């Protein structure tokens, strides 16, 4: 999910790759290798990405090859990263590097003894280039295993300016105002929201933004660590708030049944595709990449966003996610793998994907000029400026059995809640039952 670099940035990045000396911002960088020191070596990198995300990550891999001589190959795991990587390790075909999309999975891998701690070089770069929260999420029991290369700003609501203009509404500042604006959009001929209910992870993101704003960061942290139960009144309150949106036929494009058969790309298509069915779609900054690359929308002109609004007197939430690079102990080429992670800590590596689009970096040393449009630039600025106050995606912090498995745990229970949002207390009880089993395991 993507954006185009400017001519100036392309020239600057190309020069940086050729000279291996500086990032576009002028800071010294190192790819973790000198010249073609890794000639003849190959690493396999596994991750969830497919489609345009995979293509853009391939540009980062190619830049590493150009710089070091190491060959790379990417393997897409699909959503069930834990199961796929476990099978590869058992079969003696472990990749060298995995881009792990959930904190809970990273912790699981570390506790199973699968991960190699990051090198001192990589650790020093994390200390220098990242807010400490990213180091915390990449560490287990005080040891740094994961480098957060790609981040997501998951507190963004994307909209068609034409749809809102036609309805005569402005981007809202509160959750209640957003629902009111949604009804006005609906009355003008389009549904308010396109909801990607086929992908359970999108529903966890909806819940997390409502919960963080309504319950506050302390409760959010406690629930994420399962220090409070999912039957807590704050959970029931957040589910009740979310259920009012889900059950409103005016607000959800095609109703709940159609939402449950709509995947994430399809939800973006319903707003920004050739035959719009809704005026808004909630999801992270990566919506822009799909709107631009698949449907030709110009970001900032015919596709824009507003921050996820504050709920019932709370503060506007800032929820993030991210993909952490880890090195597996069972991978055959440890040296090249660790050099690759050292490369990923540099602004230079981030600039490659930032220029291609559909990407945010938590690396505060990356020049914002690396991003190809003002909207992405502002989103990236907001994420970095949030520093240690940003809250990581709650489901990504949970054990994979609860927060990161298709057709199970939180994903499945929230899909059931979208299907029938009439019983928030019962849904909370089912969430607690599933969470208790997963955390105990």
TrEMBL record:
It comes from the Bacteria. Residues 1-23 form the signal peptide. Pfam families: SBP_bac_1. The keyword Repeat does not apply. The keyword Disulfide bond does not apply. Keywords: Signal, Transport. Gene3D superfamilies: Periplasmic binding protein-like II (3.40.190.10). Transmembrane segments: none annotated. SUPFAM superfamilies: Periplasmic binding protein-like II. Belongs to the bacterial solute-binding protein 1 family. This is Sugar ABC transporter substrate-binding protein.
């Amino acid at each position: 999910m993507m954006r185009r670099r400017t001519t100036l940035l392309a020239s600057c990045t190309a020069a940086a790759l050729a000279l291996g000396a500086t990032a576009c911002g002028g800071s010294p960088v190192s790819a973790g290798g000198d010249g073609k020191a890794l000639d003849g070596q190959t690493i396999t990198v596994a991750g969830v990405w497919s489609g345009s995300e995979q293509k853009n990550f391939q540009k980062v891999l190619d830049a590493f090859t150009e710089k070091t001589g190491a060959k790379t190959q990417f393997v897409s795991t699909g959503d069930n990263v834990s199961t796929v990587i476990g099978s590869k390790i058992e079969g003696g075909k472990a990749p060298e590097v995995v881009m792990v999309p959930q904190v809970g999975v990273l912790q699981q891998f570390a506790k199973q003894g699968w991960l190699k701690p990051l090198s001192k070089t990589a650790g020093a770069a994390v200390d220098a280039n990242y807010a400490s929260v990213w180091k915390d999420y990449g560490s287990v029991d005080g040891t740094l295993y994961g480098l957060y290369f790609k981040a997501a700003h998951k507190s963004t609501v994307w909209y068609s300016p034409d749809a809102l203009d036609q309805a005569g509404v402005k981007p809202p500042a509160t959750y209640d105002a957003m629902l009111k604006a949604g009804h006005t959009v609906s009355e003008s001929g389009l549904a308010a929201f396109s909801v990607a209910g086929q992908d359970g992870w999108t529903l966890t993101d909806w819940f997390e933004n409502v919960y963080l704003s309504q319950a506050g960061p302390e409760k959010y942290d406690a629930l994420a660590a399962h220090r409070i139960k999912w039957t807590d009144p704050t959970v029931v309150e957040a589910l009740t708030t979310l259920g009012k949106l889900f059950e409103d036929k005016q607000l959800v494009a095609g109703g709940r049944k159609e939402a449950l058969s709509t995947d994430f790309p399809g939800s973006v298509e319903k707003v920004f595709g050739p035959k719009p069915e809704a005026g808004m779609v909630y999801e992270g900054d990566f919506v822009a990449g799909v709107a631009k690359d698949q449907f030709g929308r110009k970001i900032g002109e015919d596709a824009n966003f507003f921050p996820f609004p504050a709920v019932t007197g709370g503060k506007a939430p800032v929820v993030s996610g991210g993909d952490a690079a880890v090195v597996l102990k069972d991978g055959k080429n440890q040296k090249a793998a660790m050099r690759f992670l050292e490369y990923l800590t540099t602004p230079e590596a981030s600039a490659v994907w930032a220029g291609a689009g559909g990407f945010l970096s938590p690396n505060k040393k990356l020049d914002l000029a690396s991003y190809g449009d003002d909207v992405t630039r502002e989103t990236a600025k907001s994420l970095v400026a949030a520093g240690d106050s940003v809250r990581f995606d709650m489901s990504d912090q949970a054990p994979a059995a609860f927060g990161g498995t298709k057709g199970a745990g939180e994903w499945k229970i929230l899909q059931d809640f979208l299907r029938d949002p009439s019983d928030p207390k019962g849904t909370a009880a089912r969430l607690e039952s599933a969470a208790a089993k997963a955390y105990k395991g």
